[in-house]
Write a structure and sequence with these properties.
Layout (H helix, E strand, L loop, with lengths): L3 E4 L5 H13 L14 H8 E14 L3 E5 L2 E4 L21 E4 L4 E4 L24 E4 L4 E5 L2 E13 L9 E8 L8 H15 L4 E7 L3 H9 L3 E12 L2 E11 L1
Parallel strand pairs: 10-11
Antiparallel strand pairs: 1-2, 2-9, 3-8, 4-7, 5-6, 9-10, 11-13, 12-13
Amino acid sequence: MDFIVRKAMESDRTAVIDIFNHFVENGFAAFPEKKIDYESFDKFKAMARGNSFYVIEVPELSPVSHVGLNEAKSHEPELSEAKSPEIIEPSIDASLSVDTTAAGVNVGIGTELPAASLPMETAPPAEEVAPTAVIPERPPLKAAVAVSEKKVIGFALLKTHDPVPVFDRTAELSYFILPEYINKGFETLFLELLLADAKGLGIDSVLAGISSLNDASIKFHKKDGFTECGRFKRIGKKKGKDFDVVWMQKFV
């Protein structure tokens, strides 16, 4: 899968907060019980140590839309001297309208009925003129149109653990990835990126505060070398369920 990892920008405000709010409303990865506002993006930026705030972006194709195209060409028919000119009147839809809202575009195509296809009087034999007839060469065609866009599917940041300078050696990490992109390696990529930033900032102890109801996250961190270093029991309640905050730690 093609993807880009880059620093979070102002243009990511909506996507980042929407991702976080997905986990607010679904499950226990995010602690809040109510959705946060888009101004919270500024708080995320302020919390990030050394601007260690990233997003992952993947290409996304919008649904393919089909635009109908009527193609008609003029031809000079071969006429026999023994036969009178024959006027061919093709049936053409004079108001073909195509809706391509799937691609975010409304297109209306109007097709005028050519004058040559209307009934004509036959001129006297001495002044016969071969008429021009409009003959549809093929049935209406359809062209497929796909629009490529980019989609932010996750974000991560290295957070200040405590603003008191004696704790500068310690930071917390957080990352949120949309469910359909879980178990594709993005979690590990984010983790390695944040750990590298931590080393570069002189941080040698990294913490993750995890809800005891988020078993998948606890297992992920254990697998990647984190150990449980503390647990605050029953300090939270979400959706009617009590939970502990499990603190996991890794030295880097």
